[in-house]
Amino acid sequence: MFRKSILAVAIATAFAIPASAFAADDAEIGKIREEIKELKDGYETRIRQLEQRLEKTEQGAGTAKPAAPAQSAPASANAFNPAISLILGGQFNNLQRDPGTYQIGGFIPGGDEIGPGGRSFNLGESELIVTANVDPYFSGVFIAAITPENEVEVEEAYVQNIGSIPGATLKFGRFLSGFGYLNEIHAHFWDFVDAPLAHQAFFGGQLKEEGIQARWLAPTPVFLEFGLETGRGENFPGSERNKNGVNSGMIFAHVGDDVGISNSYRFGASYRVTYAQDRSYDDLDSLGNTVTDAFTGDSKMWGVDFVWKWAPNGNRVERNFKFQAEYLRRKEDGDLAFDTAVVSRQAAAGTSGTYRSSQSGWYMQGVYQFMPRWRVGLRYEELNSGNTDIGLVNSGALTAADFPRLAENDPKRTTAMIDFSPSEFSRFRLQLARDEARFNEADNQVFLQYIMSLGAHGAHKF
Amino acid sequence: MNKCLTYVATALMLIGWSPAYAAVNIFTCVPEWASLANELGGDKVSLYQASTALQNPHRIEARPSLVARMRSADLAICTGAELEVGWLPILLQTAGNKKVQPGQPGFIFASELVDRLEIPTRLDRAEGDVHPAGNPHVHLDPHNIAKIATAVTQRLAKLDPANAAYYETRGSDFQARWQQAIAIWEKEAVSLKGMRIVPYHKDTVYLIKWLGLVGVMNIEPKPGIPPSAGHLSEIVGRLQGGAADAITRSAYQDPKAPDWLSEKTGLQVVELPYTVGGTAAAKDLFGLFDDTIARLKKAKK
Questions:
Q1: Is A81 exposed, middle or buried (0-12, 13-18, 19+ CB in 10 A)?
Q2: pLDDT, position A431
Q3: Residue B274, phi then psi, degrees to nearest 5
Q4: What is the Cα–Cα distance from A311 to A38, expressed in whole angstroms?
Q5: Average pLDDT of span B149-172
Q6: Interface contact B56, partner A, CB < 8 A
Q7: Strand boundaries in A147-289, DSSP class E
Q8: For residue A431, what is the DSSP state?
Q9: Cα distance from A254 to chain B (closest Cα, Å)?
Q10: Stretch B78-91: mean pLDDT
Q11: Distance (Å, rounded) from C-alpha B273 to C-alpha B252?
Q12: CB of A257 less than 8 A from some CB of B
């Protein structure tokens, strides 16, 4: 650049001089030209020397790589590839009781994520997460879980629109329901190996919805969010219904804020209604037959959730504490069919009567990071099976002994964990639990778990 | 129930909705951009600062309060280069604010406006928490701040055309004062040239380059990975025999490891503000560099 401008000056001068020195003779002009050439050559040599010196200095700076220009063009169409990350997880379980006999006594089972898993080494679900913007209007999220049984499950696959209405986000596809706090959070971000008993009993693990979710955030300095969710509701506690329209509806609200610089909280409430059609489960009748019973009716659930986080000066790198609690209550009202396949010789086999239950559960947990990388956590939880009202028992057609799974029970569990995270992307956890979910039987459980995340850096929800 | 909710929502909106008289609501991820926006926007903007100098900018909690503030922002100024990757995406996804999405006029990633250092040639997490777009701590070179200020001024004028002249005047006033300050800092810091420092994290590379310091090594073995006892004793060995002049620590970093090293090596720990608010003297961007240079000079003596 310098060289160019000098040339330009030289040329300009060369043209300007003959004009100004109108009367100058050829010899004089030649002399001037020579002088200019000398001047030019001199400058060029000096610039070359300067450039060499600059180069040397840059090399001398050693480790520091030369700064790339801020606007570097993407190399190829592959630059449009979505962000991909992969979660690898697994655990080693030591269970006092046979996990094959696991049940949450007093609660109609459903869903496939109940219980502590198998003994010995267990590969967890390997989760593949792919996200990208679709266009200026939509973004897409796809999360597949490859199960240890070599099956692929679509955990979440949804499209999102942000802010077409100010404050609103719209999600459609399959997603984790926004009920409560923990349900929306992916298992690899959980603070314990397993879901709370309440989530296992009421959702069969984690509630997924196939449908639409709309959220609206109020334009207030305090976090105030309202949401609606509706969909097919085919997952427990609902069921597939082969019906037009929708089978579930939910409303929820969240409020949250900071308290000083070190504390922040979120409080939430949710209410969800769904309908179950022939939601079947196995039980053992009084004659010892394995019978299939089925519930048909409304399943209404409400819950409140609370999260409090603390970190000194809001800097959570060294130390931080998180308290989390949820209360869930489910009311089911409808009919319960006994022995739908009619394998029992009882007269009431194949008949049905009314069924009404009101059951609740809660957990609370605290997790404390006492130094970088290390955290300890404690969780306590209880379920209350309530008084289940079974028409076939009330009428005398059958006895309570024909529905042993629905006997009154108050499951409890106490869990302690310690985890170590070598980096933000890896974590090892030791968890001890005393699980009293079965009828009158405690199970002492030990888990060793690892969670590794590869690829794109994930963001953590509050 | 629905009706009830609507009433509650309306009531809360009426109470909580503070109609900002300022024309532009600015959400800033880190303190340096809040201070810059304050210099450039004056009383025509209303500012929200998402984090403080005592918080590690990589690891801010995506708190509900931040989501709520992002909701009403007209302009968001963040650093980018993945500095805020652990929390900013959550705010952007849940705030439902179309104006402040990357690529929109209401969104600025400051690091994209300047030449970044340490763009990795090899992208591998085995190297720790590396940033593919280069080192994000760009604000510690005041020449970068000048470039970013120009962009912020232009953006303010675009978002709030009615006050464009105001922003232009304020912008050129700031630039003049800033260039003057840079000249003074560069003169003052001549004696710092060649000073060998041991920073905790790679958050001072722009400062090192600007002032001609020498970064001997970092206390962290790899970016984002805290030093183990073994690594620390290894550093002690490498720092024997006057291999460095001082250990530096940014305000948000835990003093334990630097202090321990200082005890073992006899090197002084210089606490640097890192950003606005990191020390009492670093009240604004000017104070940030005044104090940073003063503290380094004090240690050099």
A1: exposed
A2: 98
A3: 65, -50
A4: 71
A5: 97
A6: yes
A7: 152-162, 168-176, 208-217, 223-231, 248-259, 263-284
A8: E
A9: 9
A10: 95
A11: 8
A12: yes
Amino acid at B7: Y
Measure the CA–CA gap between A324 and A183, rounded to whole angstroms. 13
Note whether A116 and A99 are within 8 A (CB): yes
CB contact under 8 A, A460 and B99: no
Residue B103 scores a pLDDT above 80: yes
* Residues whose CB is less than 8 angstroms from the CB of residue B109 and which lie 6 or more positions away in sequence, other chains included: B78, B79, B80, B81, B102
The helix or strand, by DSSP H or E, that contains position A32, with its residue range, turns out to be helix A26-60
What pLDDT, in 10s, does the model give residues A103-131? Answer: 999 999 987 788 999 999 999 989 999 99
* Helical H segments across A206-298, by residue range: none
Q: Where on the phi/psi map is residue A117: left (φ > 0), alpha (ψ -120 to 50), or beta?
A: left
- Work out the percent of chain A whose per-residue pLDDT is above 90: 76
Where does B19-163 have alpha helices with state H? Answer: 31-41, 64-71, 88-94, 142-159
A217, two tokens: 């955030």
Does residue A279 carry a pLDDT above 80? yes
Residues in chain B: 301
Chain A residues with beta carbon closer than 8 angstroms to that of B97: 162-163, 166-167
Q: Which residue has the tokens 């329209």?
A: A245
Q: Which residues of B touch A311 (CB under 8 A)?
A: 61
Contact criterion met (CB below 8 Å) for B134 and B116: yes
- pLDDT of B86 higher than 60: yes
How far is B292 from chain A, CA to nearest CA, in Å? 22
Pick the residue of B14, B48, B94, B138 with the most A CBs within 10 A to test the interface with A by mutation.
Answer: B94
pLDDT at residue number A148: 86
Match 């970044």 to its residue by tokens.
B116
Distance CA A363, CA A382 (A): 6
DSSP H or E segment with residue A299: strand A290-310
Check pLDDT > 90 for residue A337.
yes
Nearest-CA neighbor of A422 among A353, A380, A384, A372?
A: A372
CA–CA separation, A158 and A160 (whole Å): 7
Pick from B13, B69, B71 the residue to mutate for testing the A interface (most A CBs within 10 Å).
B71
What whole-number distance in Å separates Cα of residue B191 and Cα of residue B173? Answer: 29
Lowest mean pLDDT among A175-184, A318-327, A453-462, B286-295: A453-462
Q: Is A163 on the interface with B (CB under 8 A)?
A: yes
A218, A255 contact by CB (below 8 A)? no
* Cβ under 8 Å to A: B residues 65-84: 65, 67-69, 71-72, 82
Give the tokens for residue A351.
């008949």
d(CA A54, CA A149): 62
Phi first, then psi, for residue B31 (nearest 5°) are -60, -35
For Cα atoms B242, B246, B249, give the angle at the middle one, nearest 5 degrees.
145
Nearest CA in chain B to A218: B13
